[in-house]
Amino acid sequence: MKLTIALLPGDGIGPEVIEQAVKVCDAIAIKYKHEIHWKKALTGAAAIDAVGDPYPDETHEVCSTSDAVLFGAIGDPKYDNDPSAKVRPEQGLLRMRKKLGLFANVRPTFTFPSLIDKSPLKRERIEGTDLVFLRELTGGIYFGKRGREDNGDTAYDTCTYTRAEIKRLARKGFELAMKRSKKLCCVDKANVLESSRLWRETVQQMEKEYPEVTVSYEFVDAVAMRLVQWPNDYDVLITENLFGDILTDEASVISGSMGLMPSASLGESIGLYEPIHGSYPQAAGKDIANPLATVLSAAMMFEDLDLTEEAGAIRDVVNASLAQGVVTEDLAEGGKSYKTSEVGDWLARNI
Ligand code: IPM
Ligand code: MN
Fold this sequence. Notes:
Its cofactor is Mg(2+); Mn(2+). This protein is α/β, with parallel strands linked by helices.
């Protein structure tokens, strides 16, 4: 198969982790006789520095004409403490999601048997955890009306959802639930927010189309608590943009390291694959970042391209590296650790 994949390394540790994923994908291409054509493009602070725009038109062109997008990370501390900055790296990511129509962010949380004791949570609580968040990604407060009034002393961001936006996300949730354990949890704050009431109403109306799926409705504050207490109670969770942002960071604690969890952002056509961690600027250039979340994101990409065996081969080699202790320092617990590039080389060699 001939594949064109847009490669967006982004900022901080992005380029380093992306490089390892490319090694692994290239090894997969050799083994399974595919041809991967990588098209590198600028995004984030790197793009602001180069061309003054965190998501340049050329990058959009590259993404929208590829089969998939593999993305590193975005963000640079020089923008974080400057509320007056006019352009920010994150705007690039948001614009990319919107322009590529990536409305569904799939964020799985699972545990690795060999890492169960790395989690700060008790083994008996998290063993066997395997859940997936579907976070709405192109609506809500991230894209609502925002502004200042009162000479700058009042600021507002509004959360707006249409029934159609909720429906298309919920449909992906129901469909995923049908493929898994037929359990769906709709996370909202319907006791307070009107937009949440529209979520609940819309999802309730869809229930009859999926009679086999058991749907529960829970408030986001309660889920935040129960998620780390009883993660095994959950399977597929659907939620709006900001709740999903917060809960998926929280959920990553279950797996023991943020450096492990992959994600996919899907729309009607193209998919974007990225680790859920950020640009981790303190580690940039040191060859110490954990590349596994990005490598596992590449596995999700192969899966969605219907290359299931290839995806399985990547997951197997990742499991083997963990079992054999070929890990970066975040997972080494004072024992022997490997550099980012060494882990990438090992994975590629063992595909
Ligand atoms: C994420 C990130 C982004 C978000 C930021 C960088 C804009 O935290 O992908 O979860 O809030 O969506
Ligand atoms: Mn986030």
